[in-house]
Amino acid sequence: MANLAQVIPEPNEIIQFLKQEMLLKDISEKILHQKIISKTAQERGIVITPEEIQEEADLLRREKRLEKASDTLAWLADQLISAEDLEARIHQKLLTKKLSTYLFDKEVEKYFAEHKLDFEQFTIYQIVVSYEQLAQEIFYEIEEEEISFYEAAHFYDIDQRRRYYCGYEGKMYRWSLNPDIASVVFSAPIGEIIGPLKTEQGYHLFMVQEFIQAELTPETHQSIINKLFRQWLEGEFNYWLHNSCAVEAS
């Protein structure tokens, strides 16, 4: 099997490719984000231990089914990285998680209480068709019990996946839908047919099957930390960028 490492592009070729693909800005921002995270973690006295890195590396090997040392070495070679590169990646990942928890873990409950509506979920079924008249006819047929919502979705929806799942969209948050549509859909009684409502996709009929009360689960807890951390990181990045530009201009 040919070894890609033997023909890997030169650094200047990689940079030129990133420029051509308009990816250099995104990569540069990610590098600067890492610098901000590392600097802030150092200032806060946050460290990652060798044991933590080893535990994460073992988890990665299990996920990749790298049972033997030779399997791991072969995988690293295929990724064009060394064991040290992998360790650095794991270190940065763990540092980011530990810093985000350090900064925002105590703010989660307050944020959840202030934004509780954003975490309410609804089990949604939907039918989308191309023509208003057809949507209206389907609505009346469902109302008159000539056809069920699920059958109508299976026969008429323009989306193959929804046809297969009989209109099932899954659990959705309020913010998952356009605000104007969400205000109509989520204020209707459970099981009531809603629509037709027009969007760029076509004409929609909705049915809310279940309301799921907002609950601060471990997953929601972590998602709030991640959101607050992203906002903080973007603010720090913009502050750093502004100061750098000001220094250059002076």
Task: Using brief descriptors, characterize the structure shown.
alpha+beta; elongated; Chitinase A, domain 3; 250 residues
Can you offer a commentary on this structure?
Residues 119-210 form the PpiC domain. The structure is a single chain. With 250 residues, the protein is of the alpha+beta class. The chain folds into 2 domains: 4-91, no CATH class; 121-212, Chitinase A, domain 3. The protein contains 11 helices and 4 strands; from the N terminus they run ααααααβαααβαββα. It has a 4-stranded antiparallel beta sheet with strand order 2-1-4-3. A hairpin with a 4-residue loop joins strand 3 (193-198) and strand 4.
Brief write-up:
This protein starts with 10 loop residues before the first helix and ends with a helix.
SSE topology:
Blueprint: H1 11-20, H2 24-43, H3 50-64, H4 69-78, H5 83-104, H6 108-114, E1 121-129, H7 132-143, H8 149-156, H9 160-164, E2 168-173, H10 179-185, E3 193-198, E4 203-212, H11 218-249
Antiparallel strand pairs: 1-2, 1-4, 3-4
Helix pairs in contact: 2-5, 2-11, 3-5, 5-11
Distance between the termini: 56 Å
Q: State the shape.
A: elongated
Biggest pleated sheet:
4 strands, antiparallel
Helix content: 55-70%
Name the structural class: alpha+beta
CATH architecture identity of the largest domain:
Roll
CATH topology of the largest domain: Chitinase A, domain 3
> What is the residue-averaged pLDDT?
91
CATH class of the largest domain: Alpha Beta
Strand fraction equals 5-15%
- Taking all Cα atoms into account, the compactness measure Rg is 25 Å
Extract low-pLDDT stretches. Answer: none
- What is the total domain count? 2
- The topology string of helices and strands comes to HHHHHHEHHHEHEEH
**Spatial sequence of strands, sheet with the most strands:** 2-1-4-3
Total strands: the figure is 4
Number of helices: 11
